[in-house]
Write a structure and sequence with these properties.
By secondary structure, the protein is of the alpha+beta class. It has three domains: 44 residues, no CATH class; 244 residues, no CATH class; 140 residues, no CATH class. The protein is 33% helix and 21% strand. It contains 15 helices and 20 strands. The strands form four sheets. It has a seven-stranded mixed sheet with strand order 6-5-13-12-11-10-9, with helices on both faces. The longest helix is centred in the middle third of the chain and has 23 residues.
């Protein structure tokens, strides 16, 4: 037994034959055993902590920590360094220096990014737009099905949670290999979107096959290997980013090397300055990430000044408005055509002054006292109808709806909804004017009862259809820019029934959800989300 008179803590040393393992956090009321390598240290406190001490009390019910290794090239799987990651993410909106970081994330933010990343399926929803909700379900439900939270046993700095994201025992031992492969694609894309857009400041991403900007034309048209995503960064002097996402249970060098080859192949087809970002998500034990900036170097440093999020200046930046609108089309279609549970969510009208107390673009509404105060006033003096609500200058009404069978609620502002509506109409107009695009005319003429279509042939035909549709849209780009911008600015003069074909959403002043918002979008998750429920049952 070793006694420290100054700290009032008794330390009892011993040896263990067991391998190192994670233990509980030492607290004044609950002494605990800490294992450092193979030495057991039992600590007992005879007095309270010094005044002003922090214990890492959780502020958010759905928060957890994600270790991230930033480096300049893929390497062998790091183990077990990710267990000891402790450095806070230094600057939102920038690629930090190489090293290990521990980032506190919110489950609601991860879910939001999952709905925004992936292939553009909107052209195929022309006749069945209500199926957009099923695509949202397909993007969200795998994360809820196979992930859970576990105690990591450490809180390196105040604000960390001491919890880590991990795969469930069902995934680890009961899931088929093909199902694991499909899940790897979904979580890999989601975590890459969260890290690049939420932490490093990249704007909205586009699946490479749908990229319209001339910088990506050659890459989007190629049939060879190429990266998953592309996007534009507002402050990087290499403004165009190519992003490849990889994920696996024990993600190794072979998979990352393949991703590196895809990025380099895509780089050869780029004519402008660009950055190559290889995002790896490993699922073994705890979820952690590797971010390989293949174009890093002293001359490539980002502007690390505080920047507004891309949604904060849509009134002035039409290109940013188009990118955000394109990203949110799936949510728009679900709200407009696939939902019968529409709700109006009042938020503070001070959208440009959203607090940013953590990495990521999402503001948890627990951090927005202005919204809490506005809702309290609405409860005290509820509006008679939605028109009266609009006269309350302290609030902005967002429309939201649940995604079936997920407990997730997605939504957006009136202005963004109107912009999405106009963009969808323009995309449908282009399809109608050019019937060879996304029509049965482009399919093989061999009757199905004679010969089953070849998968590779279908892939070729669909790729050609996407190219034609993308080219038609780009030819109409200036007209689309003007009409979408006008719809965005004129939305304040429209009532919700005009936008919803006569349907008026019901006002909701206090749903029991964990909520978050950006300048123009909304997300809410139920506290009984499968991931959170499994945590509370322990």
């Amino acid at each position: 037994m070793v006694w420290s008179r100054q700290s009032g803590i008794a330390v009892e040393l011993g040896w263990s034959r067991d391998p190192p393992r994670v233990h509980r956090i030492l607290t004044p009321r609950q002494p605990s055993a800490l294992l450092v390598r193979d030495k057991v240290i039992t600590m007992k406190s005879s007095m309270g902590p010094p005044q002003g001490s922090h214990d890492g009390v959780l502020k958010y019910d759905d928060a957890f920590d994600v270790p991230i290794l930033v480096r300049s090239a893929p390497a062998r799987r790091p183990f077990p360094q990710w267990r000891r990651a402790s450095t806070p993410w230094p600057t939102p909106g920038a690629v930090p220096p190489p090293g290990w970081y521990l980032v506190t994330a919110l489950w609601r933010e991860i879910i939001k990014h999952s709905t925004e990343v992936g292939r553009d399926i909107v052209p195929w929803l022309r006749e069945v737009p209500q199926l957009a909700g099923q695509e949202l379900l397909a993007r969200i439900s795998p994360l809820q099905a196979y992930l859970s939270l576990t105690d990591a046993g450490q809180v390196p700095f105040p604000g960390n949670t001491g919890r880590r994201l991990k795969t469930s025992v069902v995934y680890d031992h009961g899931t088929e290999r093909s199902a694991k492969s499909a899940f790897g694609y979904r979580i890999g894309m989601t975590m890459a979107q969260w890290a690049c857009c939420g932490l490093m400041g990249l704007g909205e991403t586009t699946h490479i096959e749908s990229a319209q900007d001339p910088a990506f034309t050659a890459l989007a048209n190629t049939a060879g290997p190429c990266p998953d995503l592309c996007g534009r960064h507002p402050t990087d002097y290499r403004p165009w980013w190519l992003v490849e996402a990889k994920a696996g249970y024990k993600l190794g060098l072979d998979a990352l090397a393949k991703g590196q080859q895809q990025l380099h192949h895509g780089s050869k087809l780029m004519s402008q300055e660009h950055r190559l970002m290889l995002c790896g998500t490993s699922l073994h034990e705890h979820v952690f990430m590797t971010m390989d900036d293949l174009t890093s170097g002293a001359a490539d440093l980002l502007d690390t000044g505080v920047r507004p999020d891309s949604e904060d200046n849509l009134s002035e930046d039409t290109d940013a408005l188009l990118r955000v609108t394109q990203t949110q089309l799936l949510t728009y279609l679900h709200l407009r055509y696939g939902s019968s549970s529409l709700r109006l969510i009042p938020l503070s009208s001070q959208r440009t002054a959203r607090p940013r107390t953590r990495p990521g673009a999402l503001t948890p509404l627990e951090d927005d006292p202005a919204t809490a105060e506005a809702r309290q006033r609405l409860r005290a003096h509820p509006p008679a109808n939605n028109r009266e609500l609009r006269q309350r200058t302290e609030v902005t009404d967002f429309v939201a709806s649940a995604v079936g069978a997920t407990g997730v609620h997605v939504g957006m502002s009136r202005r963004l909804f109107a912009a999405c509506q106009r963009l969808f109409e323009e995309r449908i107009r282009i399809i109608d004017e050019f019937p060879d695009v996304f029509s049965r005319r482009g399919k093989p003429s061999v009757p199905e009862e004679w010969l089953a279509p070849d998968d590779e042939e279908w892939v070729r035909i669909e790729r050609e259809q996407r190219i034609r549709h993308r080219e038609r849209e780009y030819e109409n780009r200036e007209h689309i820019r003007v009409t979408v911008r006008d719809a965005y600015h004129q939305a304040d003069q429209l009532e919700w029934p005009e936008l919803f074909g006569g349907v008026e959403p019901a006002l909701d002043l206090g749903a029991e959800l964990l909520e978050g918002a950006t300048a123009e979008t909304y997300i809410g998750i139920r506290p009984d989300d499968p991931l959170l429920t499994s945590l509370r049952s322990r």
